[in-house]
């Protein structure tokens, strides 16, 4: 497989409102050192793919509002590879734009599309799985999605139902997809966990550029016409002006609804590399090192007394003392303080009113 044809597209336009006050619309979670490790989630995502593609084949699609943040955090990415959306239109227009632009210069491109705010624990296994999937899509018209092996009855993720009765002849780890499932209720999630052929949908897609462009032509003709029509403008000083004018006319639709649930050649690669989408404070708590009382502390000089099952994220404070709390989020950022029960975290958006 020619690695020079491998491209990685990082979608970095989300607002991460469930992580208030750490994440705000002006400064979403992908641009924050959520884990307290010295790197932001976006930087960790790009680092994760350095063994998959050359840095000249890395693409970031983000909101125009975050252009400076991306350039500051990823100075080695060519500004021509930082695509700026004038407004939010979900993942299908974002993927269509970058696909046509890549195809204009490299019609043999083989592409991974990934969110920018996930974490992966087992880096080596992740790289192995992605490279194996890229080899599979390089010379086929298959769309591969990574399916995370479920470890608990999770209601916060969508699921992929795979047909495990027969693996693909050219890659014994890849299977056809029977169906995509919405986020389930707890009883349904428990049933999925028992069945063994249901996987968490990580939102990581792998395909060659002809496959995705052809699928968009078939299933999303109006959107395809827009980005096909922009071929004379890609890589010119008129590109942004034309995108600003036409991108807002695209339908607001996810790639799952636009392509995944309609197309035929859809496959799942079941994998296990310690993945989390870090969608909530609870998921951050699940994925971090705990003390003897199941507390997670991110920040300097944090002291917990008679407290358990808490997550404290206070990276800007000199000293923090918490006493007598069980199952709470304590988070501070830029003079905003949150103290909220972990069990009520889905209401943070409502509480914050931002």
Overview in brief:
This protein has about 350 residues and is an alpha/beta fold. It has helices spanning about 40-50, 65-75, 90-105, 125-140, 185-195, 210-220, 220-230, 240-245, 255-260, 280-285, 350, and strands at about 5-10, 60-65, 80-85, 110-115, 120, 145-150, 160-170, 170-180, 200-210, 265-270, 275, 295-300, 300-305, 310-315, 320-325, 330-335, 335-340. About 30% of the residues lie in helices and about 25% in strands.
Unreliable spans = none
Structural class: alpha/beta
Mean pLDDT: 94
* Annotation, overall tally of beta strands: 17
Our measurement of the CA-to-CA distance between the termini, rounded to an integer number of angstroms, reads: 47 Å
Helix tally?
11
Major β-sheet profile: 5 strands, mixed, barrel
Q: What is the element string, with H for helices and E for strands?
A: EHEHEHEEHEEEHEHHHHEEHEEEEEEH
Oligomeric assembly: single chain
Query: What is the 3D shape?
Result: globular
Question: Helicity level, as a percent range?
Answer: 25-40%
- The percentage of residues in β strands lies in 25-35%
* Strand arrangement, major sheet: 6-9-7-8-10
Rg for CA atoms: 21 Å
